[in-house]
Request: fold
Amino acid sequence: MPLIQIKDLTKLYRMGESIVHALDGVDLEIEQGEFVAITGASGSGKSTIMHLLGCLDRPTAGDYLLNGRNVGDMSDRELAHIRNQDIGFVFQTFNLINRTTALENVGIPLFYARTTNSRAPARRALERVGLTQRSTHTPSELSGGERQRVAIARAIVNDPVLLLADEPTGNLDTRTGEQIMEIFSSLNEQGVTIILVTHEHDVAMRAKRVVQMRDGKIVLDKLTRDIHVDAGESPTARPADIPALQPASVPEAPPAPAESAPGNAEPLEATPTVKMKPRLAAGVNGAFGCGLAAPLLLLLGIVMLIVMQTRFHPSEFSPEKPPPLALAVLGIMLLCLLLSIIAGLIGFFWGRAVLKRIRTVPGSWIGKGRARTACICGLTTVLIPLALFGLNIVVWMTRTARG
Ligand code: ADP
Ligand code: MG
Reply:
């Protein structure tokens, strides 16, 4: 039984007075394990058929059987389940969540599936696309090719039977596009059924079967190896029956500026130098604040001590009736000293943790100076009272020894 059986599939759109035949009675069968490229000029119906295959939309007429089950008979709930479990999607514009790491992006379908709390499947998926070293990076820290690899990892994290990709190389330069196609080929060798849309001839010829569309109809359906044979055994020759896939087929979205970043032409297994936007390391300002507060509090405590010694004579202190102002000053002094030690300790350890994070987590971090200042201020603030206390003890001991 074929994985996909489409019979007379039709999708109409009403555009004002006229009706657009986005799909005009398409028949198609795709077996498990195939690697199919759908090509055609812009507006020929490629995205429409992908949306229907991906259960993102319902046809106007016709049948779509996925694994023998008629998708038209399914409830929205069942369709959502199929989209999550059985189908992976890869888009031209990657569609990653910007502020979350590669690993978290890949784990999103797991979260929706509520099957596991473990990150192991997401790690495995990243490994399959050769991106283990980039798991803690956010999309803005990745090249275009790497972003698309993250998107592919997200698409395969639930081990889908079907992987759909709409112009996955459309926003990438040729070399990066080839690397992405290598990943698709290797996933296909591992048994994943892949259908991808492209208007690039070379990309289409990396698949095992080419389906060409025009005006909502399939006009050519051929194995790539037969196309090679027809073209005279030369795999690089452009076959006559795949017309030059028009440059007129405008890409759906303008290429993102980051795609021209120098990092995206890297060989797959290498660890390229990725140009990263500098970012403030988390916790820097907190540590810095504590580190600065500590000596200030200590200073305030010392001022209170001086006030005590100059303003209040010891003879004024009778234990029964101490002057309230002196008590207040004494209280503030002790509080300041205590708080300065606490702030100093927090500043020191927090600053150290931030420095460690900056050293060990890949990324271009800002805040090293502030974290260092927090450490130094915190430590000195804690050490100064200790040193003074120690000095007092030494003085007292020498005096008693002499006396
Ligand atoms: P392709 O992906 O090959 O460029 P599409 O499948 O996006 O083509 O579109 C096929 C045809 O259907 C085009 O003529 C397009 O204008 C039309 N079409 C697609 N989506 C809609 C829509 N939501 N509303 C109206 N017309 C649409
Ligand atoms: Mg399209």
Remarks:
- The two ends are 105 Å apart (CA to CA).
